[in-house]
Structure formats: C-alpha cells, structure tokens
Amino acid sequence: MEIYLDNAATTRPHPVVVESVTRALTVDYGNPSSLHGKGLAAERLIVGARDAVARTLGVEPEDVLFTSGGTEANSLAIRGLAGLARGRHFVTTTVEHSSVRVPLQRLAAQEWVVTELPVDHHGRIAAAQVELALRPDTVLVSVMAVNNELGTMQPIEEISRVVQRHRAAGSPTLFHVDAVQAWGKIPLRPMTWGVDLMSLSGHKVHGPKGVGALYVRPGVRLAPQLGGGEQERGVRPGTENVPGIAGLGAAARLLAADFEETAARMRALQDRLREQIRAIPDVRINTPPDGAAPHVVNATFRSVRGETLLHRLEQEGVFVSTGSACHSHNPTPSHVLLAIGLNTTDAQSTLRFSLSRFTTPEEIDAAASALRHAVAELRALVVP
Amino acid sequence: MAYILLRYGEIHLKGQNQRFFVDRLVRNVRESIADLGDAQVRHAFGRILVDSPAEEAALISRLRKVFGIVSLSPVRVVAPAFPDIASAAVDMVGAALAARPGVGTFKVDTRRADKRFPLTSMETSREVGQAIWERFPQVRARMDHPDLLVKIDIRDQAYLSSDTIPGPGGLPSGTGGRALALISGGIDSPVASWLAARRGMTIIPVHCYSFPFTSERSKEKVLDLCRVLAGYAGPLRVWIVFFTDIQRTIQLSVPEGLRVLVMRRMMMRLVERLAEQERAAAVVTGESLGQVASQTIESIAAINAVTRLPVLRPLIGADKTEIVARAEAIGTYEISIRPYEDCCSLFVPPHPRTQPGLQEADEAERGLPVGALIDAALQRSERLTITPRWARDPVGVGS
C-alpha cells in the first residue's frame, strides 16, 4: 500500500502529462526556432501550452512566460524588476517561500530596503498592513496566494486593491503573487484582480519538474537574468524546454477540465482528514478552518518528533512531510511555524499532509488510522 | 605517465618482520591504483617506486591515502650521467615555476649512493644549480628555506624530485589483525576507525540502524563515511545492525537516566557476537573521555563489563577541536555534519546519569530479554561490502 500525502512537495505526473512529455522527446523533438517542419511542430506545442496555461488564469497567452519552475519565476519577478526599478523598497511577508525570501534578502544586503510583514496565528496578513507599509518608493509587493506549509490563503484581491490605489497616487508599485501552491486549488484571476506578476509551477499540479511560468501583465518590463536569444520575448532566453512545457500545458488542460469538482472533492477529503486528526489527543491543527486551500492539513502532535512520526508512517506506506520539503534537510524549525507562534519543540512535532486529485476517501481513512496508531505508539516511548 | 617515489617510515624499525610489512605495503599500493592501468611497483633501496601509465595527479590522489606511506614525490628517472641529470633538473624547475608563480629561490640537494659517480654530492649540487640558474636567471640559489628544493638521488639510476607530499603514515592495511568498529554517523567514530585502520588493522564498521527513529538517509550517510574510509583502507565489509526493537525495548523498560548506558552495552553485546563470526579480535569506538554522559570513566567501566573483547578507544584523550581537525583532513567531516540524526542523539534524555554504578546497570537490564533481543537483531542485520568512492557502489552479500 502506498498513500502519497506529500503533494505540496510534488505530485505524481498525470499519465496524460507523461504521454505529452514523451511525445515531445521522441517525435516533436525539434528546436522551436528552426525553420523546418520539425521546428514548427515543437513551436506548436509551446503555443498550445501557453494558451492552456493562460486559460487557467483568464489572461492572454502572450502574457505568459515559461521558466524552469516556481523558483525561477519568483526570482525573475523580483530581480527582473529590481534591475529596472525606479524605487528601492519591497514589501513581503514573514511566511514566503525561500525562493521569494532569499532574493529579497540578497537585495536587502545591497541598497534595497525590504519590509517583512508579520502574520497572525493562521499565517495570514491583512491588506491594511500592506497599506501601512507602502512607501512612495515601493517597487514591489510580493505575497504568496497560498502558504506551502499551512495552506493558508492570503487576501490577494484586497491587497491588490491597496496596491492599485497606491499606484494611482503616483508610486511605481507593482504586485507579485507566488501562486505555486494555489494553482489548481483556488480560482486565480490576476487580470481581474489587478495582479501584475504571478508565478506558477508544473510539478505541483501533476506536471513535470523543471518547468513553470510567470504571468506578466502587459506593460510590465523585466530585466532578463540570463543573456541569450530572443526566446520568451528575450526576457527568458534559452532553447525552450519543449517536453517540460508540453507537459505543463497538458497539466493545465487537465486542471481546467474539472477544476471545481476536483477542488470540492479535495475540500471534502481535507475535512475528513482534519476531523480524524482532531480526534487524536493533544493535537493542534495549524491550518485555519476557513480561508485555506483545499489540499493541506498541517498539525502538531505534541511530544512526538515529527521526523520520527514521518518515518513511522513511511513504514505503513504513508508519505507525508515535516514542514515543507525544502526544510526537511535542515534541522532548524520552519520559519513559517515559528512565525505563527509555535515554539521550537512544537514546530519539530509538526507534520504536513497534502492531498491531490488522486487522493481517495479510503486513503484518508487508512492514513488517519495509521497516524492514530503511530502517535500512540511513539508517545508511549517518549513518556519517561 | 608518471613515476612516484613512496617513502615509508616505521617499517624500517621492524626487524625480522620487515619483509612481511613491505610486501603488504607493495600489494596495497598496487591495489589502490589497479584500475588506473598496468603499473610497475618496485621495492628498492628502502623505498617503493611506482611507474604507471596514469596521470600524475590521479596517482597522487590515491597513493597519498595508502597507510604506511610517510611521504611521496613525483620523480623523474634518468641515466646516472651528469648531462641527463642536469637537463631533467632544469625541466623540473621549469614545470615548478609554471605551476607555482611565487617561486624565487631554489636549492639542489644531492645524495650519491653510487660512489662511482664521478662528481661528489656537493659538486653535483653546485653544477646542477648552475645549469638551473643559467636557464632561469630569475631564481636564486638559497640554502635556508628555499621555495623549491630539487632532490637528486643517484643510485642505479638518478632519481630527481622536487615536491614532497605527506602520506598518512602508519602501517600497511592488513598487517594488524581485525577489529569491528562502532560507527554512528557522527564526527568521532569515523576518525576513531581511521586511526585504528592506520595502524594496519582491518576495520569492519558496525552501524546500529533504528529506522523509523532515524531515516534511511542516516544510513546512506554512514555508508558514505565508509566509502571515505575505504579510500584509505581498501574495500570494507560493513554491518548494518537492525537496532530498532532493542531501542524501543530500552525506551519502554529502562529508567530514563540509564537508557544511553544500556544502549551502549547492548551495542557491545551485538559486536561481541559479530566478532565471533568475523574472527575479529577487538572493538574500536569513538569515545573521548568526558565528552558526553556515556563517556565518563564510570560509564566506560560499565560498558566494558559486558564484553571480553579489548575495546580500543583511539580518541580517548583527544579534544573535540582536534577530532574535528582530523575529520576535516580525512574527508569525513562534511559527511558527518549532514543533519540526519543517529540513534544516539534521538533518545538522549535531558539528564542522563554520568556516574552510573555497575550494579545499577545490571539492575536496569534485569527486565530485558537480552539474549533474545540480540538474536533477533542479528537475524535482521545486513552485511555489505563498501568499495572506495572511485570504485563501485556497495554490493549486498546477504545477511
């Protein structure tokens, strides 16, 4: 039995995705820049993928740039803007993914100023906090749509309104949303909301690893971070990752086809898991009951080490995560869990369960039962 | 293609047995470069000369790890005639100047074992020095602390060398009996294993594996450490002992302050059983006196009480900083500090007893089915063969 509940780390590629990647590797392997028919076939795959991704966001295809993944999309948004910007101030939160935090920290070490907004115990900021932090020279506000560890949603529409008002008053401020965990889980409408930049990743939605996208609102200019050809309007040069992009396009089509039913099904499974975790004694559920994406349940199992519990569950075929996957090689507790007020011990007793379109009610029940037994067993060992 | 001259130290002090040690060293040298092409490894005049078709840098990176070698030098071998020697010396200085821009002074040092050579050692040095200076007027001869020392050794042939690279010293692997070595994945135990192996012992690392209390990556880490050790000692046999149930039982039935001690005693018992099977004569551990609660002399006494094997503790008098420096030099440090915990660190209670009595330990174990636990653990243990990193991946040979 294998119950994979680490879908916020990565997902199992959908068979249709595998097929489209394979096709791009075996049949349509041309270089999209080539003049001959092989090149044209590859270019068509990219056009189709760009169109499919754009549809999921309700934007124009030409405003979607392909990248090597979420990290590059975030980096390109931040550094690409810093390279051209007319101000020196950034606003972000304390719970962003490292691919947003680290580029901003590097800028802060130079002549830039970065304001990190603290979050409440659900991991959420209020639009009013952004309003207070904005300065006339603020170039970018960067806030994630859904937190990767907690599933908490941020009030993106409201923040966007705040940023637009500020811009109307003459500031150069743009709004970037890291939507890597949000894509396919909650509705995303950057154009309607007035979001200027939005990052996506393929492998969180059953697509391949090593491919992602950045939505760039028309009129927003970014400094390329690589020097090379004219691909992706020169903003992201390099021969296109055609197999990855084809797979990303397939994933986008799949998630658009049944978005609402899938989200509702995941929501029901999330509730089912949450209820069963709540029945375990001495547990704190860190994912907020309202305003969370439908695929994450984060919980603290007091007096059990998260890492040990993870490996104990692994023995039962249940795969979960401590904090986010990027933290699991690092013994210091997750900055997100500390930011929502957990102490170090509790942060180290925390697991994240994350669902996907493939998760079934039977899997949830079996995982919850394994969890109940594992927690009881390990607690019996640690009580002196 | 390169000649490398290897010098050994302590083996010279051996009397009747010298042949045994030298033969073994020659064999180990051959094995360490076996995959780099057909090499001639000759023992002559109290040194070993390697003549190999491989690149010099590749040979040095292997040979500098062979236990028993005190130092090594790339050499040029020419006919024992002055013109050949002088031109080889000039070449050598040219190469050194190209590789090391800071060189401004040099010295020629000649030893003449073959007294039939027409010039004395002093004369040879002076004449060769003159030839070097004529070709490279930018460098000056200097007797004290020259930047570059050109050594000329005139025997059956003339051997010229300019760089001396330190080797690990010690005695050749395979000349010092067999020992099991407890290895945790921390900083100390690989260093202890290395030190024992450097004295010629064949080391068989034993790792107590406690999945799910530790991760599979912690086992990978231990195997990576063994791969580094194998780079010095040659292929190693490694035991991964299934320790989970023992740990669980200790956790459930031993008083908190004595758990680490009982755990160490159980490890000793496991090792003693494996020693029979492996015909090993000793155990090596990474303990350093007073470093943690289980390393006080009282704890050590209580640990030793369960085994008849000699327990070798090469680090007993070393400070942590010395151990870390040694681990860095050996190449295990970067692996040891990977953040996966070993079974020793997970269950350490906040206040382990530092001065446990022997009787206390015996009493704490009264409820433990010691023999049955050991049997069960050994049945689920696996034995692997680990080859150096440059060779192949580990091969399981059954359990």
From TrEMBL, chain A:
Single GO MF annotation: metal ion binding
Listed cofactors: pyridoxal 5'-phosphate
EC number of this enzyme: 2.8.1.7
Domain Aminotransferase class V, chain residue ranges per copy: 3-366
InterPro entries, per database record: Aminotrans_V_dom, Aminotrans_V_PyrdxlP_BS, Cysteine_dSase, PyrdxlP-dep_Trfase, PyrdxlP-dep_Trfase_major, PyrdxlP-dep_Trfase_small
Record keywords: Iron, Iron-sulfur, Metal-binding, Pyridoxal phosphate, Transferase
Gene3D superfamilies: 1.10.260.50, Aspartate Aminotransferase, domain 1, Type I PLP-dependent aspartate aminotransferase-like (Major domain)
UniProt keyword annotation of Metal-binding present: yes
Catalytic activity field: (sulfur carrier)-H + L-cysteine = (sulfur carrier)-SH + L-alanine
SUPFAM superfamilies for this protein: PLP-dependent transferases
A Pfam family the protein falls into: Aminotran_5
Family statement: Belongs to the class-V pyridoxal-phosphate-dependent aminotransferase family. NifS/IscS subfamily.
NCBIfam families referenced in this protein's UniProt entry, alphabetically: PRK02948.1
Protein name in the entry: cysteine desulfurase
Organism, as annotated: Candidatus Segetimicrobium genomatis
Lineage: Bacteria, Bacillati, Candidatus Sysuimicrobiota, Candidatus Sysuimicrobiia, Candidatus Sysuimicrobiales
